[in-house]
Here is the input.
Amino acid sequence: MIGERILSAAPALRPVAAIVRASHERWDGLGYPDRLGGDEIPLAARVVAVCDAFHAITTDRCYRPALSDGDAREELRREAGRQFDPAVVHAFLQELSVAGPEPAGPEAQDVDGRATRAAEVASRVCELLPEAVASG
Here is the structure.
């Protein structure tokens, strides 16, 4: 993957390269590029996958309009145990409930604000996961 190769060129970013490489793996082992499954997938990549999917579902795409926050939550629930780590989905949805709904209107278009919110939610998701606590 090109992202992995770019990040691997900088020694300090090599751990991030492994996360990027694994971010398209699936919990059920049917992802790519290495067909990793379950706990073989680095925790950070599992968190990134859920956050990225939620963002993709809730933003307009050239091929479809954004779906609602509720529809995105349902899609994550449906894919928990198949595409996504069920514990990560559970923690992510729990944290979203605490954080409240995504802003609407002009605030929803504030890319920096959305990125900051996403980073905060992802950080708290990791704190909620037993594996994250156990591995430091």
Notes: The helical segments are 2-8, 14-22, 43-57, 69-79, 86-99, 111-128, 130-135. Residues 132-136 have pLDDT under 50 and may be disordered. The two ends are 28 Å apart (CA to CA). The chain has one domain: 2-135.
